[in-house]
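Reminder to self: tokens first, then the designed residues, so the page reads top to bottom the way the pipeline ran.
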């Protein structure tokens, strides 16, 4: 398959899956495996995530501007900013320490990714049913200890196939967030987390970057941006009404198909 077309498909897949709890990285790595696509240092898969980051920034730009503008004189705005930074901190520490192992071992193990999709799907279905009665309806008012706990739970997503959004949403639900607030806090936390991962990965792989791949990255970036905008606009209302069961079943189906394909030698 033409590499530009593959880049477009992977970019579309990234944008569609980044903010729903199905593991965009897992989908990208499995799709790349079965399509025979692999970028130097897995840089393509990380860089195109910036398209999804810019999508969420564009949709929340007015709200974020209001928060940062109010921060000098509004304790609630400062507390919200601090809660996101506190939740981001564990990923910084663990991500830097474990970066090489994650990229050279975990990212190169398709069977692990497929199994984690299934396991995560089962957990998501279970938590969607048994989550406690919501005590926190506003993602901008999560207590700092709760935000820190969500940040540690997010680190589980360093195992590809787990899902960053899935881990943060499950953690928030178990800690008493409503389904909508859990998804929205995951959006906010994705901004520093994904931007940080992009910057650090680009730095670590600066020696293996291939200028000839810039066209493919650009195509994937644009597709990720467009598809992520569409998903974010739809997601909050959907999970408020229907919960997360659809995504749990999707993970189980995709993971099971991938396991079967890998056993069959594909």
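Designed residues (266 positions):
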């Amino acid at each position: 398959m033409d590499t530009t077309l593959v880049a477009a498909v992977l970019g579309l897949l990234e944008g569609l899956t980044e903010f729903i709890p199905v593991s965009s990285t897992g989908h990208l790595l499995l799709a790349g495996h079965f399509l025979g696509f692999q970028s130097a240092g897995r840089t393509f898969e990380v860089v195109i995530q910036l398209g999804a980051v810019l999508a969420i920034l564009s949709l929340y730009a007015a709200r974020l501007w209001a928060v940062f503008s109010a921060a000098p004189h509004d304790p609630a705005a400062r507390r919200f900013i601090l809660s996101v930074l506190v939740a981001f901190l564990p990923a910084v520490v663990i991500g830097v320490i474990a970066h090489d192992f994650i990229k050279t071992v975990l990212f190169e193990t398709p069977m692990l990714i497929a199994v984690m999709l299934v396991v995560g799907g089962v957990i998501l279905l279970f938590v969607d049913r048994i989550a406690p009665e919501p005590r926190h309806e506003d993602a901008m008012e999560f207590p700092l200890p709760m935000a820190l706990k969500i940040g540690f739970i997010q680190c589980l997503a360093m195992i590809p196939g787990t899902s960053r959004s899935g881990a943060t949403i499950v953690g928030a639900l178990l800690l008493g967030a409503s389904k909508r607030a859990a998804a929205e806090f995951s959006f906010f936390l994705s901004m520093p987390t994904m931007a940080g991962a992009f910057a650090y990965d680009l730095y670590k792989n600066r020696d293996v970057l291939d200028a000839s791949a810039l066209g493919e990255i650009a195509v994937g970036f644009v597709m990720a941006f467009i598809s992520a905008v569409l998903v974010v606009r739809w997601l909050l209302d959907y999970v408020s009404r229907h919960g997360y069961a659809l995504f749990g079943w999707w993970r189980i189906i995709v993971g099971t198909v991938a396991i079967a394909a890998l056993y069959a030698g594909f």
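The radius of gyration is 18 Å.
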